[in-house]
Structures are given as structure tokens and as C-alpha cells.
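User: Hey, quick favor. My workstation is busy. Could you predict this chain's structure for me?
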Amino acid sequence: LGSAGGGGGEYGTQAFASGSLPASITVTVGQGGTGGVSSLAPGQSGGNSSFGSYVIASGGGGGVYTTSSCVGGRGGGVTGGAGGVAGGGGSSTYGGGGGGATQSTIGNGGSSVYGGGGGGGYAGCGGASTYGGAGANGNAPGCSSGTFVNPAHAPGGGASSGNGAPGQVTITWN
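Assistant: No problem, here it is.
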């Protein structure tokens, strides 16, 4: 069997000087990408989360599985990890981890420090994230990377047609 996990979402942050922002700012929370509805249907990319036009964090890409190839979704952001091609997804610091792809190899999702971990391929584990959500596991038993520090961030969906988690926007005043 083969399948591909989706990429994790990007992390974005910005500090603003007191009084430098307008009184009203539109906040958008991106939806998680939906998993493929059949064995050959691609997963959909996750939506972008934003704080006006000041901070935009990209959702991760959907995984793709065809009869001849398997490619994990790219992690969100310019620095997002590459999706695995019949193997593990790439890792990132601020971007999301790339999705793993399983065809004849184990495809674990790529890890990220701040962004979401990539989803695992069919026989792979989700990628870990230090501050974002870990990627969902495929159908692999014994995965330990499914535990994470902050479950509210945007991990990639696993390979069993799992959906990705929605993004999150957090605003703090000092």
C-alpha cells in the first residue's frame, strides 16, 4: 500500500510598537486541508492564517498518491520542508515539516521547531514539532512523535485520508 501525508503549516510572528496598528484588523484562521476521499484522490492544501496583511502563515500542501508515485505535501512557508518522494519529508525551523510518502519505504513526516510537523505516509509516523503540533501518524504502530507540546497549532494530516488541523492566531499584549 502507498499514501502520502500532508505538510505542516508555517509559523509566523511579528512584534509591533505601541500605537502603530489601526483600531481594527481582520484576523483569518486557515482551515486544515482535507484528506483524499479515495486511495488516488490528492489531499487538499491547508488555508493561510493571518493577522491583517502584517503576518501571514501559509498552510501545508496536500499529499498526492497515484498508481505510479507518492509525494508528501510541502510544508507551509518559503522555508517549509520538501514533501517526501516515496520517503521521509524534509524538516524546517519556522516553516512546516514536509509530509512523508510511503510506497515501498517508510515515509515519516518531516519535523519543525515552530511550524507544524508533516503527516506520516501510510507506514510512517508524523513529524515532531517543538512548539507547533506534531503531524498525524499514518497506520504505523508504535509511533512516538504523535505527542506534542501545543496541540492547537497546525500539524499535517496523516496518510489515512486524515484532515489537517486548522491554523491558530494568538495575539499577546505586553
